[in-house]
Write a structure and sequence with these properties.
The complex is a heterotrimer of chains A (533), B (165) and C (361).
Chain A: H1 3-6, H2 11-14, H3 20-29, E1 39-41, H4 56-61, E2 71-73, H5 77-106, H6 115-131, H7 136-168, H8 174-178, H9 181-204, H10 211-230, E3 234-237, E4 243-247, E5 250-254, E6 257-258, E7 261-266, H11 267-274, E8 287-292, E9 298-300, H12 310-316, H13 329-352, E10 356-359, E11 367-369, E12 377-381, E13 386-388, E14 398-399, H14 401-404, E15 415-416, H15 432-439, H16 453-493, H17 497-531
Antiparallel strand pairs in A: 1-2, 3-4, 4-5, 5-6, 7-8, 8-9, 10-11, 10-15, 12-13, 12-14
Helix pairs in contact in A: 3-17, 5-7, 5-10, 5-12, 5-16, 6-7, 6-15, 7-13, 9-10, 9-12, 13-16
Chain B: H1 3-36, H2 39-71, H3 77-87, H4 92-138, E1 144-146, E2 149-151
Antiparallel strand pairs in B: 1-2
Chain C: H1 8-35, H2 46-101, H3 107-128, E1 131-132, E2 135-136, E3 148-150, E4 156-158, E5 171-175, E6 178-181, H4 186-189, E7 192-198, E8 204-209, E9 215-219, E10 233-239, H5 240-261, H6 264-324, H7 328-352
Antiparallel strand pairs in C: 1-2, 3-4, 5-6, 7-8, 7-10, 8-9
Chain lengths: 533, 165, 361
């Protein structure tokens, strides 16, 4: 006979899915699952749903329905919230640190190939020029170092823009926004919000205290942790296990509905919509995050000031100069621009001032008076297609075309006569103007906070370096905090294999003992059988 | 002359039968516990069974002694009945009744016992399979290292059941 | 509180975090050892990074100053040699002048003497027109224009920057903002000579003897003066050694003329002139020696600067090395230690992973 068929046990009873061993197996198989909260059968309570009174024998005789025991899920809300806060902070610092590290990498002055050494060589060539102001070699050499210097400034500017572009887009082109880090993050955040709403919906229809509900809660907590990495949130939990998520005062998810998604656009697009001239009158970030409702209508036009934590917060504020003492790509760009414009102004003024003389290219033994357009540094005005000296930035500074022609080298004004009556057309060895140029090396510039050009650049390097250094130590500290919180969470909810094994061993021992009983009882069974013959 | 002993026999048989019925009941309980794998209660129940078992053995012994007294050897029910037919025919009827009851009880209790054996085997197999899974998943069976490099791995013994089944 | 429970996953996480920290340390030290530098990015150590940048800049500047000083010293060497030569020739001419002054020379000797003096004059002019590095040393700021010329009238003109023009200087920077002047003007050292005549309308005429020995007067365009000689006023401007040489030459000429003409008054006047030029020689000799001394002083200062610059370079270089280069010995031992720690944590991990009830059941 088929023992199993005669066992007369209802189908679900023999499956070990919904009993104590099943909980152990569920724990063990999920022990490495991210976000899994350990579950335990509450053995002391003996709370079997659907029991008939307190009589254990009545439970035993409930032959058909083996109802699911109340499976308790380990959880600690305070710990969860604290953990999310710290995780937000850590992700924000991570973005800032990455940005500052790359920023430091752009300025490789330690190897002698940075702007500082180009400036040094520039002044050295100037020194040489002062010795031999009428020598074509010295003049050519000087112009070459000037070209290297401007070229290097252009290059660093481009690298800075690229850095910003990769983080938040360049502010005007849709394509660069779509390829930026912040775009990826904002999309993932919206996906997570959708998932959370779906889980909330499922939770609304599932009974609490069941295995399915617990698994859904695990999933929900995991999504909340994910969301907190992107942006700082506050979470309000409702009774049925659904949650509402707020950032600042704005509700992003309420129950099973996503009430506020994020949308992102370029700064130019935002300015066009609001009638602001871009980029002249726009002082904000390169991308604008807004909060929209389910239909796409704007709830908050410009949410950049609300979003300060998480990876989005770290990215969006990483490239703008807020004039508050922080160092980021925006402030560095502005500082470089100041250096470029000051350099151009100082040298152009000296090269064009009255009583200074350059050399006549038709007769290189004679001096020639300089004029107002005899510039050393200039930039291209895209609208007119000609050179100008207004609006010089590190990105567009170049050596003036004036000096780049075949006879251009003679346009450098090296001679200067303090007293015009001492002027002598043959005095090509006069290098007083070059002496004045050399003096600018140590001269304090009002535009540069009262520092000389080289001092200002070095202090910029110092700012970048110490910002990167302090960001790193903040990040490391924060990582330690988050790690220890994760350990705490784990110790609260994590599966300890040893505990599970203890349970299993307990079962084994019980089985072993039960098996031994058989042999004891077998003899008296045999007696009965022989009696009945 | 055998009246008193046979009466005694019947009492003993009744007591025996009641004990075996109790045993059957305990077996039923055990079956339910095995289904639910309630290990704590299993131990308690087993103790009850063992206690009952010793009680039963005592009664068995009494019956045996009486049988030897009466017939000189240990008898089964049919032998008792034939003895009664010869010496005290008024006991044939009650003895036959009891025989029928006993015979009815035997398959039931045997069935229950076998069911319990199967359930126990099943439970043990499940538990051992789980242990297997855990061991495979958990300890990655990495190698042992000392200052000189890698040393040999060794197996972990996983059978913990004593071989009494 | 949950501090008594350590889940299996937590145990692993703690172990892994430790292993990673040790590994990171080990990797960083390896990088330092292989590059020889303690700092590879400015964020590693901001203060040291700024110090390194500043020190490198200073070293660059010192290098430039050093070069300038060397070049200046070389030019001053040349200048000194030239001035030495100049005094030599001056001495020769002076001696000859003294000889001529003792009144025993006859016409032929005087003729020979004049020729010698004129030769010395030409040599002196060539000397004054020396070029150094494509610049006329004695031209002041007019470095491309030949400073001294003898024209057809026998005038020695100087077209460099005049000594009273403060813009004659050429300088070199030997320290931050410290400039040394390394040139002087030709008119200071050598002087010049100009003789011309003006008429009533102030037109300038130069005298020249034609082949017949008659003095003719020409203006600067070469047109001959047709008026009377008596209407012309004579002017003479001279200074320095050129002046002395020319005046001596003229005086000798006048003496010869007076001897030929047997004019004893003119002879006395001419001999008087010859004697007067001796004072000129003495003065111009002083002028040159004074300049030499001045530049000698500059040269000494430059020498001192060189040794100071060298010391500064050494100090800065060793300072730079101390902040930038690793100390191989200590870095190597740190690296080995990091390696041990890393290995040890790996071993501990292997052991701990076996610690579980599994071993005891």
């Amino acid at each position: 006979m088929n023992l199993l068929s005669s066992l007369n046990i209802s189908a679900g009873a023999l499956s070990v899915n919904e009993k104590a061993i099943s909980v152990v197996s569920h724990n063990v198989s999920n022990m490495n699952t991210e976000g899994y909260h350990k579950q335990r059968v509450n053995l002391q309570a003996r709370n079997i749903a659907g029991q008939i009174g307190d009589n254990p024998y009545n439970q035993v005789r409930a032959n058909g329905g083996v109802k699911i025991a109340n499976v308790m899920r380990y959880n600690d809300d305070y710990l969860n919230n604290y953990y999310r806060e710290q995780l937000s902070q850590k992700c924000m610092l991570e973005q800032q640190l990455g940005n500052l590290d790359e920023l430091a990498g752009i300025f490789d002055d330690l190897e002698g190939t940075g702007i500082d050494s180009a400036l040094s060589k520039f002044y050295e060539a100037l020194n040489n020029l002062q010795e031999y102001p009428a020598s074509s070699t010295a003049r050519t050499n000087f112009i070459e170092t000037a070209k290297t210097l401007t070229g290097l400034m252009n290059e660093k500017s481009v690298q800075l823009s690229k850095l910003t572009g990769e983080a938040v887009g360049d502010g005007s082109s849709e394509e660069s926004l779509e390829n930026s880090k912040i775009f990826v993050q904002y999309r993932e955040l919206n996906n997570a919000l959708d998932e959370l709403a779906a889980v909330n919906k499922a939770l609304q229809t599932t009974q609490t205290g069941t295995l399915t509900a617990n698994n859904l809660l695990d999933r929900r907590d995991l999504i909340l942790h994910d969301i907190s990495q992107f942006v700082d949130i506050t979470v309000k939990e409702n009774e049925n296990g659904t949650v509402s998520v707020y950032t600042g005062d704005q509700a992003l998810v309420k129950g099973s509905v996503v009430t506020g998604k994020l949308d992102i656009e370029t700064a130019k697009h935002y300015c066009d919509d609001h009638g602001i001239i871009y980029p002249d009158n726009w002082t904000g970030e390169n991308a604008v995050i807004s909060i929209v409702d389910a239909d796409g209508g704007k709830i908050v036009d410009n949410a950049n000031s609300i979003i300060t934590g998480g990876a989005l917060g770290g990215l969006i504020h990483s490239a703008t100069d807020y004039n508050n003492g922080t160092t980021n790509a925006g402030t560095v760009q502005n500082s470089l621009n100041k250096i470029a414009s000051t350099l151009a102004k100082v040298f152009n003024d000296l090269n064009t001032r009255e009583n200074s003389y350059c050399i006549d290219p038709t007769n290189t033994n004679h001096l020639k008076a300089t004029n107002d357009n005899n510039w050393i540094f200039a930039c291209y005005d895209a609208s007119t297609g000609t050179e100008t000296t207004s609006g010089i930035t590190a990105a567009n500074i170049k050596v003036s075309d004036n000096l780049l022609t075949n006879d251009g080298i003679w346009n450098l004004s090296c001679a200067y006569f303090d007293d015009p009556s001492h002027y002598d057309i043959n005095a090509v060895g006069n290098a007083q103007n070059v002496v004045a140029m050399l003096e600018t090396r140590n001269a304090k510039q009002a535009d540069l906070n009262g520092q000389s050009i080289e001092e200002y650049y070095t202090s910029l390097l110092g700012k970048i370096a110490s910002a990167g250094d302090s960001a790193r130590s903040l990040y490391e500290t924060q990582t330690d905090v988050v790690d220890s919180l994760e350990n705490q969470l784990d110790s609260a909810y994590g599966v300890d294999l040893n505990e599970e094994l203890v349970d299993l061993v307990k079962y084994q021992t019980a089985y072993a003992a039960a098996a031994r009983v058989f042999s004891t009882v077998n003899s008296c069974l045999d007696t009965l059988i022989s009696l009945g013959r | 002359m055998y009246k008193k002993q046979l009466q005694n026999l019947i009492d003993i048989l009744d007591r025996e039968f009641k004990s075996y019925s109790d045993l059957k009941q305990l077996f039923e309980e055990k079956r339910e516990l095995l289904k639910k794998s309630r290990s704590d209660d299993l131990g308690v129940l087993d103790n009850k069974i063992i206690a009952l078992d010793s009680k039963i053995k005592k009664i068995n012994k009494e019956r045996e002694n009486l049988a030897v007294e009466l017939t000189g050897k240990n008898c089964n029910m049919s032998e008792f009945i034939s003895f009664a037919e010869e010496n005290a025919p008024e006991f044939v009827e009650p003895l036959s009744e009891r025989k029928v009851k006993i015979c009815k009880l035997i398959p039931e209790i045997t069935l229950l016992n076998n069911q319990n054996v199967e359930l126990l085997k099943h439970g043990i197999i499940i538990t051992n399979k789980m242990l297997e899974t855990i061991i495979d998943a958990f300890a990655p069976q990495g190698s042992y290292y000392n200052g000189a490099g890698k040393t040999d791995t060794h197996d972990i013994d996983m059978w913990t059941i004593s071989e009494e089944i | 509180m949950y501090t008594n429970r350590i889940s299996t996953a937590a145990r692993y996480n703690l172990l892994t975090a430790d292993i990673q920290k040790n590994e990171a340390n080990y990797v960083r030290l390896t990088q330092q050892l292989s590059s020889g530098k303690k700092i590879t990015s400015i964020t590693d150590d901001p203060i040291s990074a700024v110090n390194i940048v500043n020190t490198n800049r200073q070293l660059g500047q010192i290098d430039t100053f050093n070069q300038n000083t060397q070049m200046a010293m070389e030019e001053l060497d040349t200048l000194d040699d030239l001035m030495e030569l100049a005094t030599g020739y001056l001495q020769q001419a002076w001696d000859k002048g003294i000889q001529a002054n003792n009144g025993t020379y006859g016409h032929a000797s005087l003729e020979a003497l004049k020729t010698e003096i004129d030769e010395i004059t030409k040599t002196m002019v060539d000397l004054a027109n020396t070029e150094y590095n494509n610049n006329y040393i004695f031209a002041g700021a007019n470095t491309k224009l030949i400073p001294f010329e003898i024209d057809q009238y026998g005038n020695i003109t100087y077209s460099g920057t005049k000594q009273d023009n403060p813009d004659y200087i050429r300088q070199t920077e030997v320290a931050d903002g410290v400039f040394e002047v390394i040139n002087t003007t030709g008119d200071k050292i050598f002087g010049y000579y100009e003789a011309f005549y003006t008429d009533a309308s102030n037109t300038t005429y130069y005298a020249k003897k034609d082949d017949a020995g008659n003095t003719k007067y020409y203006d600067k365009d070469g047109n001959e003066y047709t008026g009377s000689v008596d209407d012309l006023t004579a002017h003479e401007n001279s200074s320095g050694v050129m002046g002395a040489l020319k005046k001596l030459s003229n005086a000798i000429q006048e003496t010869m003329d007076a001897q030929d003409a047997k004019d004893s008054d003119a002879l006395v006047a001419a001999e008087e002139k010859m004697r007067a030029t001796m004072d000129l020689f003495s003065e111009s000799h002083n002028d040159i020696v004074t300049e030499q001394t001045k530049f000698g002083g500059v040269y000494n200062r430059l020498e001192m600067t060189t040794s100071t610059l060298e010391t500064n370079t050494e100090n800065l270089t060793s300072y730079l090395s101390s902040i930038q280069d690793i100390d191989l010995a200590s870095a190597a031992s740190k690296w080995m230690q990091a390696q041990y720690t890393y290995q040890a944590s790996l071993q501990v991990a292997a052991q701990t992973m076996n610690m579980s009830l599994l071993n005891y059941i």
